[in-house]
Amino acid sequence: MEELMGEGAVRERLGDRSVRTAGWLAGGALLAAGAAWTVRGAWEIRLAVAGEPASGPPDQGEGVHRPLNGLEDSYHLVTSLGGGVAFVCALLFLAWLWRVRDNARVLSGRAPKYLGIWVYLGWIVPVVNLWFPRGIVADAFRATAPERKLPVSVNVWWALWLIGMFGGVGLVSRDSTDEIIARAYEEVWPLLGADAAVVGAAVAGAFAVRAVTAAQVERIRGVRGPGAAAESVGVTGG
What is the pLDDT of residue 13? Predict the structure, then answer.
């Protein structure tokens, strides 16, 4: 664990990192995920407008599934592509989060409030996933810029994330894609509400990433001072 390493070793590791590049990648991935969920919502509207076929929903119960029509097939494709974009987004966001957490430790000279394992497990362990991820972002920002207020975008991102995540029809819906199609035929508004929350969380998250990254880059430049090597505390390649 990096908490057990000497400060000099941590600085050495940070020399090969670029927090700005990580921020650009994470912010861009969040916007891409928001776009993917926007497309998903548009397809759900198309399903609602088309109406359920006379043959009934795709999942007809007792293990019976009727053949999908063209629109339903395309919705499966849209959700699969969206899932792929979301997976890449998660990887890039976690890479950024780990980087700003490490940089904040060096800049503040104190251990992070949350152990490194929570950068990953904090999203999936019940109960703690209600606040640990936001807490890690907030802790990194406060350690970097203790004189500043936490950006509003961080709280907006997290509130919308929780709505989209736990709204029952959002990111962690237990329903299969065919069951979601049936929901779109029956009552599309809860689906669209969850989609809107996810899109809003993605956009707010991109702003939050930008704000935290900018504060950290500014602080790093101040610590380095004029003439310091650009790679000294993880801003190389920006």
Answer: 46
How many domains does one find in the chain? 1
Residue 150 three-state SS: coil
Q: Within a domain: residue 238?
A: no
- Alpha helices, DSSP H, located in the chain: 7-14, 19-50, 70-108, 118-121, 132-144, 152-166, 177-186, 189-224
Beta-carbon-side half-sphere exposure of residue 216 (alpha carbons within 13 Å): 35
pLDDT at residue 189 is higher than 70: yes
Integer-rounded Cα Rg, in Å, for the chain is 21
Helix axes 132-144, 70-108, angle to 10 degrees: 40
State how far the Cα of 105 lies from the Cα of 9, in Å rounded to an integer: 12
Taking the model in full, what pTM does it have? Answer: 0.85
